[in-house]
Write a structure and sequence with these properties.
By secondary structure, the protein is an alpha+beta fold. Helix content is about 30%, strand content about 35%. Helix 2 runs antiparallel to helix 3. The protein is elongated and about 95 Å long.
Length: about 270
């Protein structure tokens, strides 16, 4: 129940007392306790115990009312502050070009960003690839895959880069957009070009080719804390023409991944 913050401590204590009195636990306790005392010491003392119990409830509820009012006021203030800050939900969204559309992207891996705030727009939102590490399947001495995967830094090492937002939601080549409250926007992380090589391209200003990677992505805005997520991404060649784009932990749950230091000790070759 929500109580008015301007309610006096006496009124709040009385309201809480009535709530306790009319609940099923208190009458049961009072009747059982009063009945036991009444049978042992007489009904006068049983009735007196019931009245004393009711008085103690009122006294305790009234004395603790200011503390409960303070805690409730603090909870409401925190909730109001949260409403002033954008909240987002982020999901991987691999997709292919519908037959009704005509453009040079046949498949892509997008990040679906939803502003779940009910009262605040997300200003100048950007999506950035922070880290990119290549995923290799280790091979034995005969060059046969072992079913174990390792991570390797790119050479040269990847530098953080912003990706473009989908042209479905924004003008072309936009690295920052505003996301209205309750709205969803797509940031294209990687894509495959029509008549292009059997590789995907990261959707950054340089369009570098990509293979099989562990990718760390950040969503940021001046009016919210930066969100980060880790994903597995791979383009499956033109015969399938689609992206595998899932959360990293989900991919690792069905694949054995080891650190580079462990790989060196065991003598596998990438």
């Amino acid at each position: 129940m929500d109580y008015a913050l301007n309610q006096s401590a006496w009124r709040r204590g009385w309201n809480d007392t009535k709530t306790i009195w009319t609940g099923w636990q208190f009458p049961v306790f009072e009747l059982v306790g009063g009945g036991v005392i009444g049978r042992i010491f007489g009904w006068y003392w049983g009735v007196l115990l019931v009245l004393f119990g009711m008085f103690c409830v009122w006294l305790g509820a009234t004395a603790s009312a200011p503390l409960r009012q303070r805690n409730e006021a603090r909870t409401r203030i925190i909730a109001l502050e949260k409403e002033k800050q954008p909240q987002i939900e982020v999901h991987p969204f691999p997709s292919k070009r519908p037959s009704s559309e005509r453009h040079n992207k046949t498949a892509w891996a997008a990040l679906e960003v939803t502003n779940t705030s009910s009262g605040v727009d997300l200003d100048n939102a950007s999506v950035q690839i922070l880290e990119l590490m290549q995923v290799f399947e280790c091979q034995d001495e005969q060059g046969i895959g072992t079913g174990t995967y390792s991570l390797h830094e790119l050479n040269p090492r990847w530098s953080p880069a912003n990706v473009y937002w989908s042209e479905r939601n924004a003008p072309a080549n936009q690295l920052q957009i505003s996301i209205p409250r309750g709205a969803t926007r797509l940031a294209i992380i990687a894509f495959h070009s029509e008549n292009g090589p059997a590789l995907g391209c990261l959707n950054t200003p340089q369009y570098p080719p990509m293979l099989e990677h562990r990718i760390v992505i950040a969503v940021s805005s001046p009016n919210m804390n930066t969100w980060r997520g880790v994903y597995y991404i791979e383009y499956l060649p033109p015969s399938q023409d689609k992206f595998d784009f899932v959360e990293w932990d989900s991919w690792c749950s069905s694949h054995h991944v080891i650190e580079r230091s462990t790989l060196d000790k065991e003598g596998f070759q990438p």
